[in-house]
Amino acid sequence: MKKQATNTVTSEAESQAAQRTSQQVSKKDQIISLFTTGVDNLEDIALMTNTRTSYVASVLQSAGLISGYFDLYTTSTHPMNTYSRFFAGKLSFKNEEVAKQSVELLNRQYRRFEIARDRAGQHHALMMGLTMYNRARWTGKTREADIYRRWLLNYLNEPDLRTEMSTEPEFSEPPPMTGMDEGQTKPKQE
Q1: Is the CB of residue 133 less than 8 Å from the CB of residue 152?
Q2: Domains of the chain, each with CATH number or no CATH
């Protein structure tokens, strides 16, 4: 009986020691370890480490294990395309004044791309504005976010001049849903 109690105490002590050791391993170390041992699905790693996929990607990209991943939280020091260099490390929402300076840069670049008829450049400027807007608002910087929001709306509300495109609509309207009211998924029973 005494031997069984000793074994139980020893097992519990070993279990607690193992838990302490696993708690001391950082999330970053866990992510890198999982990836280097063959788990290459970012969503799976996020699930196993109780983190978000964007964090997993950030850790792996910083460690040089992956490249080419981009999302809302990817640092601008990882170039997404040729336009990234115009904005890398230059946009912020630290305070309202810095956000205004950042929007001025976005505006200058957008207009520069417009003059060059570089639609991809304009798209990237808008995308950077949207990224900064979302980063600011989701960290509680509502006044700073609003500066980006107003800038975006200015361009999103511009009429589409289509000077270089045909007058045909880019997308056709979906066919009307007959026998249904808006929001209804099944035809009415008559």
Answers
A1: yes
A2: 25-71 (1.10.10), 84-156 (no CATH)
